[in-house]
Amino acid sequence: MTKNVDAQVDDLIDRFVELLWLRQSVSQHTSSAYRTDLRMFQRFLQDQQRTYLPDISVTEIEDYLLYRRQQQYSPRSSARFISALKKFFQFARTELGMQIDPTANLQRPKQPAAIPHSLTETDVLELLAAPNTELPVELRDRAMLEVLYATGLRVTELVQLSLQQLSMQQELVRVVGKGDKERLVPLGEDALEWLQLYLRQARPAIHANGGEWVFITNRGGPLSRQAFWYRIKIYAQRANIHTHLSPHTLRHAFATHLLNHGADLRVLQMLLGHSDLSTTQIYTHVARERLQQLHSTHHPRA
């Protein structure tokens, strides 16, 4: 392959990336990654003495994907390469008048399910104890953390809870989740006690007329998802917790710890409000890890 052809391909890739940035508002980071992916593929073709990039067939693409697997590129990285290649050929068909698109039936590799970050049971106890419950706002936060860990609610579900959704006598909360689907979730004794203490002492002190919302700000409205996430980070710092946190960390801890203590996956599905069991199965890694730890600790030949 001549240097002239290489220069032509480099120029075509540069114009493609520039067009992405100008017309499709693709970020500079993604544009740069696309350029790198396409040039790596071009070098592979050159090393294999194959045809230059705009003339490739499905065979060359499949060979390159096999090469990437052998080189242990991640499925996520290969999925990005395929995305870049598909967009490139959409551009090339217009730019070069190509009739055939070799990427038309190309499927992105299946992404492995992301393992959610969680906290140890000790971490959770320290996080729950972090608020200064002598202060009304922090008593509210303690109640919110307790309810979140006891029920596995999504943060959005928690901050949007209304008083009508609580049944103190039955120790249940009626949750309106995704798709307006309702589910009943037990509160548990500890969460119920903190919730009652907050409603009796802190809520009237925060605002005299809090309306229908359970957890309110000093303006009487509901706490925002972002504001509560900010509060969690404050308490994590106080508790000296340095592991990765997300707004759903306590939801993941709820699911993880239930499985650790023998909960059934179907029950967990109902409590979390997942419409499909496959979504809940992400937590089965917890059970496997737990078994491995028990085996390692207790088996004489582990």
UniProtKB/TrEMBL annotation:
- InterPro entries of this UniProt entry? CB, DNA_brk_join_enz, Integrase-like_cat_sf, Integrase_catalytic, Integrase_recombinase_N, Integrase_SAM-like_N, Recomb_XerD, Tyrosine_recombinase_XerC/XerD
> What is one process in the GO biological process aspect for this record?
cell division
For the keyword tRNA-binding, the answer is no
Q: Which residues form the active site?
A: 154, 178, 248, 251, 274, 283
Record keywords: Cell cycle, Cell division, Chromosome partition, Cytoplasm, DNA integration, DNA recombination, DNA-binding
Domain Core-binding (CB) positions = 7-93
Q: Does the keyword Lipid metabolism apply?
A: no
Concerning NCBIfam families, the annotation shows:
PRK00283.1, recomb_XerA_Arch, recomb_XerD
UniProt-recorded name of the protein: Tyrosine recombinase XerD
Species per Swiss-Prot/TrEMBL record: Pseudidiomarina planktonica
Q: What is the lineage of its organism?
A: Bacteria, Pseudomonadati, Pseudomonadota, Gammaproteobacteria, Alteromonadales
Q: Which gene encodes it?
A: xerD
